[in-house]
Write a structure and sequence with these properties.
The protein is an all-alpha fold and 169 residues long. It has helices at residues 2-21, 23-66, 70-82, 86-98, 105-118, 122-138, 142-154, 160-168. Helix content is 85%, strand content 0%. The longest helix has 44 residues, at 23-66. The protein is elongated, with a radius of gyration of 27 Å.
């Protein structure tokens, strides 16, 4: 019992000696951790606010489209594409394609490239490649579509079977 008490006292004294010797370093360390935590919280809040703003713009573009203000809707969708938001960029691209807002095929392929750069997960990139291949097939660019589909087959993607089925047809 007495030895345990001595160990506690010894530990306390060593800790106070360490603190006195390294007071500035210890304070700097804890101050650095505090700054890091505050920075992380601020970045998360900023990202959340930005995501909410992009979602509101996406809804606004849909409302404008239904109100026959197609050019304004298209412009908002383009801004969403360029925002590099991994979720809403794909949705904006889908709306541009499905609603045939962009007639220039080269521009749509440019949109695919923009959205592909914003994707982080392999599955999302593969789905985007697949959609791009389908788009190319629709507009008679079969060679480029086959290249993309072969890339999906070779990469052992989860949608490999779909790509093989389309290549066979």
């Amino acid at each position: 019992m007495e030895q345990n008490f001595d160990n506690k006292i010894d530990f306390k004294s060593r800790l106070t000696i360490f603190y006195k010797k390294n007071k500035i370093k210890t304070l700097m360390f804890f101050f650095g951790i505090l700054i890091l935590l505050v920075s992380i919280i601020l970045v998360e809040a900023f990202n959340k606010k930005k995501n909410i703003q992009i979602s509101e713009e996406f809804i606004k573009a849909g409302i404008l489209y239904t109100g026959d203000e197609i050019s304004k809707s298209k412009k908002i969708y383009e801004n969403i594409l360029k925002s590099n938001n991994s979720f809403y960029s794909i949705l904006a691209l889908n709306n541009i394609i499905e609603k045939d807002l962009e007639k220039n095929n080269a521009k749509v392929l440019e949109y695919f490239d923009i959205v592909e750069k914003s994707q982080k997960k392999k599955e999302q990139k593969d789905i985007l490649k697949f959609k791009k291949a389908l788009y190319l097939l629709k507009y008679q660019n079969n060679q480029d579509a086959k290249i993309l589909l072969n890339e999906l087959v070779d990469s052992d993607s989860k949608i490999k079977n779909l790509a093989e089925d389309i290549l066979v047809d």
